[in-house]
Amino acid sequence: MTNANGTPSKVVQVSPEVQAIHRRLKRNQQMTRAFTYLVGILISLWVLIPILFIASMALTTPAEVRSYPKSILPFTPLSTYTLSFFLGSRGIIPGIRNSIVVAVITLVLSIVISAPAGYALSRFVFRGKDVFRLSILAVRAFPIVVLSIPLAVVFLRTGIYDSLFSLALMHTALALPTTILVLSSVFSSIPYELEEAALVFGCSPVQAFRHVVLPLVLPGIAASAIFTFVLSWNEVFAATILTIQNRTLPAQVLVTLNQSSEPYQFAGGFFMMIPALIFIFFIRRYLFNMWGQVTK
Amino acid sequence: MKANARTQGRRKLNWTPYLLILPSLIYLALFFGWPMVQGLILAVREEDVFLTLHVEAQQNSPVAGQLSRGTQVSILERQGNLIPPNELGETNLITEVWFQIRGTDEAGEEIQGWVPETRIRVRESDADGAPIVGSIRTRIGSDDPFTQIRDEPNAEAEMVGRFEAGASVEILDQAILEVWYLIRAEADGQMVEGWAPSRYIQVFGDVTQGRIDRGDTGQFTTKYIQRMVNDRFFMPALRTTLLIIVLVIPIQFVLAIIMALVIQADLKGSGLFLYIFSIAIGVSDLAVGILWYSIFTQFGYLNSILQGLGLIDAPITYLSANTRHWIIIAVCLAEVWRATALVMVIVVAGMQAISREVLEAAEVFGATLWQRVRYIILPLLRPSLQVALILRTILAFQVFAVVIVLGGGDIVTVLANETYRQYYDLRNFNVAAAYAIFILVLSMISALFYLRAVRTQEETIE
Asked: Cβ–Cβ of B416/A237 closer than 8 Å?
């Protein structure tokens, strides 16, 4: 350590006891660090090894999938046969297409409906705001199972049963509370002063939003959209209940589970995980916005 | 600042925020509130138990009495009412359609009048699908080969002429009739007589006797709830669901707090740790079920590893009817693997709110890691833990696909799976709704329990 003049500072001349304490603290700190790394790596292995297992099952030959004992070395032999067998099975390609259609409709609907609400929650003070926020929090915790049965019956009666659009309506209902909360926290992270400045310089409120706020919140909206996509892509209970002919991928895999072979199941399981593996990487920082809102 | 306060003040009277939240309010009311009410109604209300009889053959005439479904009735009289075609959307509506037609008979005379739809084969229709040209059908098994044309759309009306089979006619108009019966039957020792639409009554061959097929009024019933409780899968499902919750949640919370501590330790590569730890948040429960199936299946990874290490000689069967405990262990592991990430995210967010100074001060004063966790982090995390507990428990009541994949749905079953079975396999919507409402009630009870438990704790601290 040096002071401004470049001469050695007096901090160096401390008593040996203090130095000893200092060393002990430092060693403790290093021990803790090493221990934390170890724990982190162990937990990572707990998460990653099962994924590695299923990935190597999906990317190998069906013979290897059926063999026993399996080689612990992953991806031997490496082959796309199992995965292409799964993708070539009846109902899988339409299922993937249906899943994507439902997820995209869900994503668009939930962003369009929740963006204004999120903006209102972050920018305005209004009577009933806390009630609204609390009911959103409560609704987010509601069981999907509870919603699916009555909605299925209602859809049957109104004749919009077994359509991708009605499934998307249901998924939007599931995603909406979370999207509203995350978008409100995304809007809150943009200082109101920026918008105010735009208003001062003669922008209309809509222009200020379009040219100042929107570019800044776009990443947050994208993260929320990705999350909604993954939620819809993964959802299996409502999808199985609400569709018959137009099954989404998880629903198709679930109803054919009993009649299908292990290579098909493993490839299906792995294929369904791929979006999560990719997308969670991009939105990991936003997860806290989504689930971390405990109190306001 | 003053200007800011003024704008804030003005904003309070502003309608903009209400307009902005309106779409989501409408949406949630439509797809959350309404289905919830519908679900409750499905679970506790039996539809169509009673049929209301009217004094006259009209829906808005005074009520003459009620008969329950299945009652044997005698049919005294029949009447057809004209109803507007736009009311025909209703299902199972038994109606008669009559056509007003014009054509030339054998004698070369032009006749205009009404015949039942069944007598006319429609040849042409206009753009809206309304018939415009037709021909008289051949009459089979009747002495009279001619079809009678009447001056009003009912079988008792005066005849205006007759057409031979095959005669082509012009269709001018159609009348849609709703048929009503005047019926009489005994209900609770009393004779009830009144008019009811024919769609509710199954008529026997002689047309004087019938049976009430379906009612138009419902009543509250505990029938579906009883059927749910007496179902042979109900208790096993409830027990397994609770068992999974009790086993999984404590492990998840300990693991999640450890994960959060690792992430908050400011290590190099904590971003990578965060990514790895939160992968499972985006993986569907079905995929997780399959993933753990690949480990626990007879020729799966667990046996491969054990055999590779020389611990076993032959593969063990884990997922069978005789090894329920192994299925539950596999389900619990899968649930811990899948859903700990969610708890971790909530806990990390809570930890980020704890001020660094407090933790550093504790460290300087020589608090061990355990002491810091026990006396600083955990108490300050209580609100986050409460939310995480509520969310996790509610989600655990819905565990579904993991159990189906690992337990086949019969050997080990859970409440959500029973809901699915009642709906999908047995087509029993009302019992399925009863299950759904039961899950909802359990979720609400557990949420209230956590809210109360934490509050009493706070009070004792004060």
From this structure: yes
